[in-house]
Design a protein that fits this description.
By secondary structure, the chain is of the alpha/beta class. 50% of the residues lie in helices and 12% in strands. A 5-stranded parallel β-sheet has the order 2-1-3-4-5, sandwiched between helices. It is globular. 37% of the residues are buried.
Length: 220
């Protein structure tokens, strides 16, 4: 059972999400909060697998709440919620360690897919909205030298795999291009995350863009 916490200052939004999630046999809503501070307090005493986190809230916004939450041991995964796809707060949320972001008006099927993917250790990388978000905001920030130096820890093959992940290719696509087994791709991804100290693929994609390994506008 996937345990979900809803964090949004609009009660109507939380009600809508709760109705969708509670109708699923593999999900349950274990708590709700109306702002980031309340969410941090709730999640000290409530175990959750996934947090749906609004970014724009009173008292403590979703970015700061995400950063504080993910600094804890055994923290749940966070999906940022926003009303429009080119949201600087959503970009900051990904930088803070969120496993992806979704629009509040997302179709139910996509919402459920995203929650299940994140709960299973994956990350929401492929949707075009995520790529558009990164390509919109990354050019505003110069690549930092300390981030660039982290890539020196990777082998040439690992850099190739990271580049392809950042461009939105699936494990199957990467395996086909490199003529290796899909299981080998997964092993490379795991090593990349471990070497770079990253939580999941979304953080890897953000780093790839911020270091200039992948340039905005580059296709798959």
């Amino acid at each position: 059972m996937i345990r979900v916490v809803l964090v949004d200052d609009q009660e109507l939004v939380r009600t809508g999400f709760r109705m969708v999630l509670q109708a699923q046999p593999d999900m349950t809503v274990v708590g709700e909060a109306a702002d980031g501070r309340q969410a941090l307090e709730l999640l000290r005493v409530t175990r959750a697998d996934v947090v749906l986190m609004d970014v724009r809230m009173p008292r403590l916004n979703g970015v700061e709440a995400t950063r504080g939450l993910l600094a804890r041991d055994n923290a749940p995964r966070v999906i940022i919620l926003t009303t429009f796809d080119l949201d600087e707060y959503a970009y900051a949320g990904l930088q803070a360690g969120a496993s992806g972001f979704l629009l509040k008006d997302v179709p139910s099927a996509e919402l459920l897919y995203g929650i299940r993917a994140v709960a299973g250790g994956e990350a929401i990388v492929a949707p075009s909205t995520t790529k558009r978000l990164l390509e919109h905001f990354v050019p505003r920030f110069a690549a930092r030298q300390d981030r660039e130096s982290r890539l020196d820890r990777l082998t040439e093959r690992e850099r190739d795999v990271l580049t392809m992940v950042a461009r939105g290719l699936t494990d199957a696509d990467i395996a086909a291009q490199l003529v290796i087994a899909e299981a080998t791709v997964k092993t490379h991804v795991h090593r990349i995350l471990t070497k770079l100290g990253l939580r999941d693929r979304v953080q890897a994609v953000v780093l790839a863009y911020e270091t200039g390994l992948v340039r905005p506008g580059s296709g798959p």
